[in-house]
Amino acid sequence: MKLTVLGATGGIGKEIVRQALDAGHEVTAVVRDPARLPVTGDRLEVFRADLTDPGALRPAVGGRDAVLSGLGARGRKDAGIAARLTRTVLAALEAEEVRRLLVVSAAPVGPAPEGDGFLDRAVLGVVSAVLKDIYADLREMEAEVAGSGTDWTVVRPPRLQDKPLTGRYRTVVGGFPRKGRFIGRGDVAHAMLGMVGDPATVKQGVGVAY
Predict the structure, then answer these.
(1) Residue 71: which of 207, 57, 39 has the closest Cα?
(2) Domain containing 138 — which CATH number?
(3) For a Cys staple, 96 with which of 10, 29, 62, 140, CB 3.0–4.6 Å?
(4) How far apart are CA 3 and CA 16, in angstroms?
(5) How far apart (Å, rounded) are the C-alpha atoms in residues 47 and 92?
(6) Residue 156's beta-bridge partner residues?
(7) Number of folded domains in the chain?
(8) Percent of the chain with pLDDT over 90
(9) Which part of the chain is the NAD(P)-binding domain (predicted)?
(10) Using H for helix, E for strand and C for coil, what is the string for the chain?
């Protein structure tokens, strides 16, 4: 497949690029600073683009089978960036008539897992309060994506870890794995790549966790 990866220098983005190349896909990695992308390969195109301009992004997404986005805030000071940049992405996809889009959100933005106990709910409440601006940004991003004409999937991981790819995790379409508290960035990337061709995940939020 021909894939475009947005936020390709981020933790999840780098893993998507690396794993997609290993799987034999052609990858366009959209970055602001090419020097920050440590991945190389014969099937890799590094595309430097201003993500505030849909016109500048169009050549990077046109003719692709899917676009996978790891865009999002790296801290509370960046709150608002996910929705803002995703609007640019959606405009570029519409102009190029590219339909398949996968984006990363966060577990607290989606429905609570069935059967979680008091402690799980309490921890989630504290985290949501501390990061409320980031989650508000992600909710706005999800609303923009859901209102678009794309065949979208929103992937909602819990707390992210820098761990080697395991390929062993749980996914719940339309919900979230019970007591799923952590997941490695490499496994989020693995899950997203697996969802690209999965019709069951189209126009759905998908919880993913260990």
Answers:
(1) 57
(2) 3.40.50.720
(3) 62
(4) 10
(5) 15
(6) 207
(7) 1
(8) 80
(9) 7-199
(10) CEEEEECCCCHHHHHHHHHHHHCCCEEEEEECCHHHCCCCCCCEEEEECCCCCHHHHHHHHCCCCEEEECCCCCCHHHCCHHHHHHHHHHHHHHHHCCCEEEEECCHHHCCCCCCCCHHHHHHHHHHHHHCHHHHHHHHHHHHHHHCCCCEEEEEECCEEECCCCCCCCEEEECCCCCCCCEEEHHHHHHHHHHHCCCHHHCCEEEEEEC
Q: Which two tokens stand for residue 22?
A: 């290993």
The CA distance from 31 to 50, in Å, is 8
The torsion region of residue 174 among left (phi > 0), alpha (psi -120 to 50) and beta comes to left
Percent of the chain at pLDDT > 70 equals: 88
- What's the pLDDT score for residue 123? 45
In terms of residue numbers, what domain contains 28?
2-209
Q: Is the pTM of this model over 0.85?
A: yes
